[in-house]
Amino acid sequence: IRWTEQWLPLKTTLLIVDARVEFNAYYKTICLAVDRKTIITQDPIVPQLTKLLNHAKTIPTQDIDVVCSLSSGSVDPSTINTVMTVQQILDRTEGDLVQEEDQFTACCYAVLTRFDLDGSSRIVSERCVHCRMLVREPNARCPKYECPGHTAANAREGFFDITVDISDHTGTLTGCRMVGQVAETVLNCDVTTFVRLTDAQRTQLKWKYLLDRCAVRLIVKRRSAVRFQNLYSIVDCAIADPAEVEAKLKVY
């Protein structure tokens, strides 16, 4: 237990032998468990160590990094054709329809019930232009000491980071994220243009989608032992054709 206080994320490497692999009912996924036979070696001297550590540093860890990764083109939105209701998405995420994979896609014909472009909700976030680390405080610098952005001024860039709620006749999916290029495509403007809009213009832009039936295509990533909440990343959103909705909308 004393050793764990010295472990540093993305710096400490552990070689774990004889760990027990078991299904965790709380996280609803396969996890590692330690018992009396488990041997843990800290920072072992093995040839693969450097490559493993460098690979680990490229994997997104923060929720916003995961969402940006999902929406960056990893899945072609045109291939997402599995129609689900909100309730089916919730059941597939942590209900009766949970499966082993931690990620799935869905097309949901839903109404946008939260799209707060002209309110107090966060619409634009900032990140370091060098390492892409999220910069949370206004006028702050990159929090990573080894990054050039930690000492450089104006090493930040803005990107859309919009929280969206979608609803249909089965319920509401809260906390969906629309980020980056996806949001630019939906809003038909970039961050620089958006921040210059007046409140009236933002309100007008909001009502192009709010409370209207849309075809929302999502990538859903279930929570895990290292990520404590489900992520709903919107990769495409367009006003739905009424005939299409009538033909494809599911009862459940």
TrEMBL record:
Gene Ontology molecular-function annotations: single-stranded DNA 3'-5' DNA exonuclease activity; single-stranded DNA binding
InterPro entries for this protein: MEIOB (IPR052469), NA-bd_OB-fold (IPR012340)
GO biological process, one term: resolution of meiotic recombination intermediates
Protein name: Replication factor A C-terminal domain-containing protein
